[in-house]
Specification:
Organism: Maribacter sedimenticola
Protein name: GAF domain-containing protein
CATH topology: Beta-Lactamase
InterPro entries: GAF, GAF-like_dom_sf
Strand order of the largest sheet: 3-2-1-6-5-4
Largest sheet: 6 strands, antiparallel
Number of domains: 1
Number of strands: 6
Oligomer: single chain
Pfam families: GAF_2
């Protein structure tokens, strides 16, 4: 059984559409990982991450998440490294990876993954839980696979 076959049909079906509803893709992904909060950012022509879909983000934080430079915060670092970035508890993190305003989300276990296809960056996807949580290697791999499927829809 391939990892792709483990991805819920709701996600693969929506990504089969010519113009996927990114909110539906994000919601299905959050449900799959039992998460409450998430974002999808797409990379623009200026190499900035632009908020494309979100759920569970407090309204007052949306302006701070709308545009993210590569290398800033979890999403920006995942984009820069082209690798997933995980935190067991964003609330107690002092590594400097999470931006100070990220604590205002009230999430703890967090995972940001690049949207990659053929090593080309198309954006990031982030998911989070309201409790401390270490994502397993399998969960990280599955989120990366979802990211690859999303990326294929963004190829111009």
């Amino acid at each position: 059984m391939s990892i792709t076959s483990e991805i819920p049909k709701t996600i693969t079906d929506e990504l089969g559409n010519d113009h996927p509803n990114w909110e539906l893709v994000l919601n299905a992904t959050l449900n799959f990982f039992d998460c409450t909060t998430g974002t999808i950012h797409t990379l623009d022509q200026n190499s900035l991450l632009q908020l494309t879909a979100h759920k569970g983000i407090p309204e007052f934080l949306i302006p701070k998440l709308t545009t993210i430079p590569i290398g800033k915060g979890m999403a920006g670092i995942a984009a820069e490294r082209k690798k997933p970035v995980e935190m067991c508890n964003l609330q107690t993190d002092d590594s400097g990876v999470a931006r100070p305003s990220a604590k205002d989300t009230k999430v703890e276990g967090s995972l940001a993954a690049p949207l990659l296809h053929d090593n080309t960056l198309y954006g990031t996807i982030g998911i989070a839980k309201p409790i401390p949580y270490d994502f397993s290697e399998k969960e990280i791999s599955l989120l990366m696979q979802i990211g690859k499927l999303i990326s294929k829809k963004m190829i111009k």
